[in-house]
Amino acid sequence: MNKIIFSLAMLLSFTAMAQSDNYSDEMQKAIVALDTSYTFTELQSVANIFERIADEEKTQWLPYYYAGLAYANIGWDVINIDKDDNAEKILALCSKAELLEKNAEIYSLRYMAATQQTMVDPVARWATYGMEAKAILEKGLDLDPDNPRLHYLEAMSVLSTPEQFGGGKEKARPMLEKAVELLKAEHAKPLYPNWGLSAAQGALAGINW
Asked: Is 33 helix (H, G, I), strand (E, B) or coil?
């Protein structure tokens, strides 16, 4: 009987290891694909891959996060889309991820969704989506005060805001410098988000030009 129990335990252990290795391999390939996707079709395809991984795994928040990040990239890079519809897709994935784990990285997605909705009509939407984005940023930084992506996103928001409304290059510069510092010091766990450094450095170089 003990031999049977031991054999079952070993079989379950090897099965779990194989599943874990397969998950890691699929995630790594999908993350590489995300990093090299720029068109709507490419990003939509990558989002679908991450959602399939998430549906298969059921206990991992990262595939939902990366699917949301793919849609966030669509919101930044693709002009002729319904920003509100796209934001709803991001937020739905955030909600699924948060059922498994609540963290600052997911708040960064929520922040991008609200920001993209604000940009549809900044004057008319600031009182709703703009304030929502501000509240999301504060909640994310409460969870992780040194999250580099939240600092980068905040700096970029300030950079794109006219000086007469509290933004501009001079105000954004120290914020970008802090974001770059945090991103350089980051030691992300395997598969965890680590994006932002090259974009933050590029934005800072543009300010200092």
From this structure: helix
Are 125 and 117 a contacting pair, CB within 8 Å? yes
What is the tens place of the pLDDT at every residue in 55-84? 999 999 999 999 999 999 999 999 889 999
Task: Note the pTM of the prediction, 2 decimals.
Answer: 0.89
Distance CA 110, CA 92 (A): 10
Residue 190 neighbours by CB under 8 Å, 6+ apart: 24
Full DSSP string of 126-165: IIIIIHHHHHHHHHHHHH-TT-HHHHHHHHHHHHTS-GGG
**Which phi-psi region, left, alpha or beta, contains residue 172 (left: φ > 0; alpha: ψ -120 to 50)?**
alpha
CB-CB contact of 43 with 73 (8 Å): yes
Q: Of the candidates 168, 198, 193, which has an alpha carbon nearest to the alpha carbon of residue 68?
A: 193
Classify residue 154 by its DSSP letter.
H
CA–CA dist 34, 44 (Å, integer): 10
